[in-house]
Amino acid sequence: MQLSFLKKKSTKETLIVFFTVLLFLLVSFLTLYQTQFYHGKIWSYLGTSDDRFHMMRIEGLYHSLQRHQFFPFVNMSFMNGFGYIVDVFYSNLLLYPAAFLRLMGFSSAHTLMGYYLLINFLTFGISFLCFYKVSQKYFNSLVFSFVYTLSTYRLHNLLFRHDLGEVGAFIFLPIAMLGIYEIFYGNRKKWWYLTFGMTAIIYSHAISPILVAVLIVIIGLCQYKEIRKHPKRLLSLSWAALCSLLLSAAYFLPMIEQLRHTKFVLTQSNGILPKGATSFFDMSKWSLNNGLGEPNIGIVLFIAAVVIVVSFTKIKDKAVKDFALIGVILLLCSTKVFPWVILNHTPFKVIQYPWRFDMLVTVLLAIVVASDPLKLFNSKLAKSGLILFTLLFAISASYRLVQGSSLQFVDQSEYNQLEPFSIGAGQEYLPQGTSLSDLQRTSHKPKIMAGKAKISQFKQYGTRLSFDFKDAKNAKVDIPIIAYYGFQSTQSEGKVSSLRVDKSNNNLAQVTVNGSGKAVVDYFETMTQKIARRISFLSLLVMIAMIFINKLNLVDFGKIEGLRSKE
């Protein structure tokens, strides 16, 4: 029997796609096997860690979806119902798949396992497609996806820190990089890659967009001559920035609104940039050790950085050369080599730890390795060997992480026991003056602070709290929720005052009641939140429509007066 159908180009392409998808799924599982699947246990630091914090975020979104609140602003699962406005400052966009797994009946442990598989697979797939879009080389794209996705710094965030925000940013960073490349080195009209990539990063992690913005400025300086020659590249960057702002208005505007009405812990925190920086010696040692317990770029990318320093002049491609140089410089700047003390009292203090720049170093050096400007991996065998060693290094690192701290290897049943008061080590989204320890000891029921009243029938359903009162005489009643801006008492019956903040009692909500009636307090979407959401949604629809119109050549924008290109 002759297998002539295998010779068809379409069949070969289908088989390659199938093989690639299967490979990514398999490697995604192998990377997680030691820490998430082995013996039905999960390796994790429990307590007040990022793991507990992000799992509570998932749990809160899951409970909100159960109540048909699809876009919550206050996570009421935190602090046993007192609420935490983390959803305004930390977008839930990437948590919906995990929340849907909870809705399907999966436990927290099984949700984490499935969600991490999905995150790994998406990072593999998106990074592969973005590199292939430029290179059109299968094996080079495969190298990039492995070196990037299995990078030590990314696995440090995924398996050790369990920072779902930064790990989410890793998914979309290659899209943003593709847009940056097109704007400064390629076809500037493809600026929308940067728009969607940057927007997705914004909705994933609040700090990562700042890092990407720094990278854009540095690359812009490297391409100064090109920009002077073709200034419309700067116009494309402006369009990308404007559209990103419109698409992310639903995130930025509500956050700014809350910051205007409430003084949060995060706004008064002192900068820790100098203390948070690691020494160059420690960075080098950790990277060569390829361990996941400390932030580092790993042995593959560290060796790449050394090779770049030695052979920088031999790199011919302008983009690759710029990325290589910037990657090495940012690696140095992520340590104490850079005088971070000069930025400690500037807005850059929100970065907290200079080693966060390792995210940019990872993607830049991974691009250089995959591009292979020095022709060190010319053959498919050499590229396959690099891929294999990258995988083995990742598996080895995860194994050593588990073996080094075996006490953190917990049963799934123990992992399923969440910690509602794990709101993050910095407690950033608490109003100033709020004591977390006091809230833990506070009874979750209304309390009369002054005056007289008889209270009964207290109920809470998500953000909605209510109680009946009678014979009240100027009774000031504290309600067991933090009085974030947006909570109102407008649906109450009887003489119930507007809601105020009791700053003397952990910033709890307070109402004054008289006579008899029913006090009802609930969170209502503010006008700013409503407008911002509609701006972002309509902007998304317009952008998608414009892209499809352009792709299908339904309208030739170049012939419209005022839009003609003069290039």
Secondary structure: elements and pairs:
Layout: H1 9-37, E1 41-43, H2 50-66, H3 86-89, H4 96-103, H5 108-135, H6 138-149, H7 152-161, H8 164-184, H9 192-204, H10 208-222, H11 224-229, H12 232-247, H13 249-261, H14 265-268, H15 273-276, H16 280-289, H17 298-311, H18 318-333, H19 358-371, H20 380-404, E2 409-411, H21 412-415, H22 436-441, E3 447-461, E4 464-482, E5 487-488, E6 493-496, E7 500-502, E8 508-523, H23 527-551
Antiparallel strand pairs: 1-2, 3-4, 4-8, 5-8, 6-8, 7-8
Strand tally, please? 8
- Structural class, by secondary structure, is alpha+beta
Q: Give Rg in angstroms.
A: 26 Å
* Overall number of structural domains: 4
| Low confidence ranges | 561-567
Tally of DSSP helical segments? 23
- Through-space gap between termini: 57 Å
Rounded average pLDDT: 91
What overall geometry do the principal axes of the alpha carbons give? globular
How much of the residues is beta strand, in percent?
Answer: 5-15%
Helix content: 55-70%
Biggest pleated sheet? 6 strands, antiparallel
Pfam families: YfhO
Keywords: Membrane, Transmembrane, Transmembrane helix
Transmembrane segments: 15-33, 81-101, 113-132, 167-185, 191-222, 234-253, 295-312, 324-343, 386-402, 531-549
Protein name: Cell surface protein
